[in-house]
Specification:
With 62 residues, the protein is mainly α. The chain has two helices and no strands.
Length: 62
């Protein structure tokens, strides 16, 4: 099985991944402040998903 390589994707898919990678951190910070001040179960789940997504981008898994 070949290793995933993001630069082999079509240009529109690469652009979507790059935009998502750049937007994840500001959304994560906003969600963190929101969760600190108004904690709900949905906020915690969403914060966990965003942290996981940021870790995946940082380790170049996506």
């Amino acid at each position: 099985m070949a290793k995933y390589y993001r630069y082999k994707l079509p240009p529109w898919a690469r652009r979507c991944i790059f935009v998502l990678e750049n937007v994840t951190l500001p959304i994560l910070l906003f969600q963190l402040f929101r969760t600190i001040f108004f904690p709900t179960t949905f906020d915690l789940i969403l914060l966990g998903i965003l942290v996981g997504l940021l870790i995946c981008f940082y380790l170049k898994w996506i």
